[in-house]
UniProtKB/TrEMBL annotation:
Primary role: Catalyzes the GTP-dependent phosphorylation of 5-hydroxy-L-lysine.
Domain Aminoglycoside phosphotransferase intervals: 27-256
Cellular component, GO, one term: cytoplasm
UniProtKB keywords: Cytoplasm, Kinase, Transferase
Top-level enzyme category: transferase
UniProt protein name: Hydroxylysine kinase
Molecular function (Gene Ontology), one example: hydroxylysine kinase activity
Catalytic activity, reaction form: (5R)-5-hydroxy-L-lysine + GTP = (5R)-5-phosphooxy-L-lysine + GDP + H(+)
Annotated EC: 2.7.1.81
Length: 332
């Protein structure tokens, strides 16, 4: 969707006009609108194939957090008819569902560094978010999200899209280790969780003691294992220069800071702690399979889709250089 069409829809459905700027996203059309008085909003126009029940769940989840937790999450604004989800028709005649939410200013964690103490704050916020969602339920949360590593066995057919034989061999070796763990993974504690606590979805401020000033993008929120949610956060603390760290380096050095903050507020069982490193490896594999496949389907968005893929090969090699037992002991 062009910025011009989005601007017209913003006026007609929300009575908002101003400077409009597109954000790079995986599958939605997302824009920041800045009005003449300086107020800023995010207009998210869902992919035409998005299920309304899933969007209803995201709106309900944000409202739940606003009611029960002091967490830096955005608010959802109703359209001119008072609806939290606005139905609109795009230039191709497709029905699209839109939401207008708070724009949270600040620095995206993906664009800055963090200290050990700041990473502890990240872990604390993740734990508080989990606890706040412990009693949240919605029919839309019980869906299959490809990025939920519990569903990695269903992605194995995507291997045919990996052209590089060395990369294919590494992915297969990782899958051969991961798949035998599925019965243990299926037995883990579950609840509704953010499921994408990544550097791209956290707004931070180094000048503030709480560091994390915004949690954005609940598009992957789902009923999944607590350990999966933590593993996704730890994946996003792995060094991007894993090859430079060497096979003997500690890939979880930054992640341990996050985990320390998390455990100060929420528990993890021994079984969860032993499986989390394997789940991190599984997410590395899933990211490679999904990204390579989607980049081939959507070459015009390949730069965004593949932005985190290259760093994953050295990370996967690091895991494969250790025995499964050594991987299980990494967080002890």
């Amino acid at each position: 969707m062009s910025e011009e069409v989005a601007a017209d829809l913003a006026v007609r459905h929300y009575g908002l006009s101003g400077e409009i700027r597109r954000f790079a996203t995986e599958k939605d059309d997302t824009f920041r609108i800045t009005t003449a008085d300086g107020a800023a909003y995010v207009l998210k126009i869902a992919n035409a194939d998005e299920d309304r029940t899933e969007l209803d769940m995201q709106v309900a989840l944000i409202a739940h957090l606003a009611d029960c937790a002091d967490l830096p999450v955005p608010s959802v604004f109703p359209d001119l008819a008072g609806a939290p989800i606005s139905e609109m028709i795009d230039a191709d005649g497709q029905t699209r569902l839109a939401r207008l939410i708070t724009y949270l200013p600040g620095t995206v964690l993906d664009t800055t560094d963090s200290s050990a103490a700041e990473r502890e704050r990240i872990g604390e916020v993740l734990a508080r978010l989990r606890l706040a969602l412990a009693n949240f339920s919605h029919p839309g949360a019980h869906r299959v999200v490809a990025w939920d590593v519990r569903h990695l066995p269903g992605l194995t057919d995507l291997m045919e899209h990996v052209a590089d034989p060395v990369q294919r061999a590494a992915l297969q070796a990782g899958l051969d280790r991961f798949l035998p763990l599925m019965s243990r993974i299926d037995a883990l504690r579950r609840q509704v969780l953010h499921n994408d606590f990544s550097r791209s979805n956290l707004i931070v401020d180094h000048a503030r003691p709480d560091f994390v000033t915004g949690i954005i993008d609940f598009g992957d929120a789902v009923h999944t294992a607590i350990a999966v949610d933590v593993s996704t956060a730890l994946l996003n603390q792995l060094p991007r220069d894993a090859a430079a760290r060497g096979r003997d380096g500690d890939l979880f050095s930054e992640g341990r800071d996050l985990l320390r903050g998390y455990l100060a507020h929420a528990d993890l069982t021994e079984e969860e702690l032993r499986l989390i490193p394997h789940l991190v490896m599984g997410r590395v594999i899933g990211r490679a399979l999904l990204s390579i496949w989607r980049a081939a389907l959507l070459p015009e968005n390949a730069t965004y889709i593949l932005r985190n893929t290259d760093q994953g090969w050295a990370q996967l090699d690091w895991f494969l250089a250790r025995s499964p037992e050594q991987v299980s002991d990494l967080l002890f």
